[in-house]
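Anyone able to model this chain together with S-adenosylmethionine?
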Amino acid sequence: MRVDIISIFPEYFAPLDVSLIGKARHKGLLDIRLHQLRDWTHDVHRTVDDTPYGGGPGMVMKPEPWSEAIDAVAGSGGPPPRLIVPTPSGRPFTQEVALEYAKEPWLLFAPARYEGIDARVMAEYESRLRVDEVSIGDYVLAGGEAAVLVIVEAVARLLPGVLGNAGSVTDDSFAPGAMAGLLEGPVYTKPPVWRGHQVPPILLSGNHGAIARWRRDEALRRTLAKRPELVARLGPEGLDKRDREV
Ligand code: SAM
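re: yes, here you go
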């Protein structure tokens, strides 16, 4: 997958060099290219913002540098990328959206600062690219860079070959696998007893069928306790007879 990020803080993306994502880049599974938005300005101050029309606090990002940058980057490959614009007013980013993005060959991110990007930029590209305005949660960050880090990490770990064990992805919370729509239950490792706390004996039994059932029961219990709305969303057809007893 190719990922391009245009930002006034390309250095913000240093974490994309470490851990899983760093390894994925190294293996050639992920081609991440960073661009400085100010390279598409034409004044001595490399200005990217201006005062808002209609008045009010803060500054708004100017359309010209963004459009020049997006034209240059989006036009530098084959079929155009999907343009992702982080904003608190966007479509909520979920595991489902991450799975959708993981199928794309090319994502282009446009993280803003200040009060956001002049709205005409999104209107302009809606007719030429697939544009997604996306929110990572109901709170306001100082800039879109942290949102891009979140989205890239969630998407990259879904790409084939990025995780050592592909099963980790299907068993995850929110994943569409065996635990569809549920939170993952508790996990344990050695030693079997630690500070008097015992690992549930079933996990040491070697009975894979019973372990799978126990895991589903625990996932259900945890989801009911912490996020009951997720269980309600599954509906009766999402639950088997034993589930309903939990
Ligand atoms: N005034 C804007 C509003 O209330 O919607 C918030 C602007 S925020 C200070 C600056 C930038 O941070 C946004 O344009 C966006 O790129 C990013 N941002 C902030 N919160 C975000 C969130 N929850 N999800 C995605 N991006 C966010």
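Residues 173-245 form a domain with the Trp Operon Repressor; Chain A fold (CATH 1.10.1270.20).
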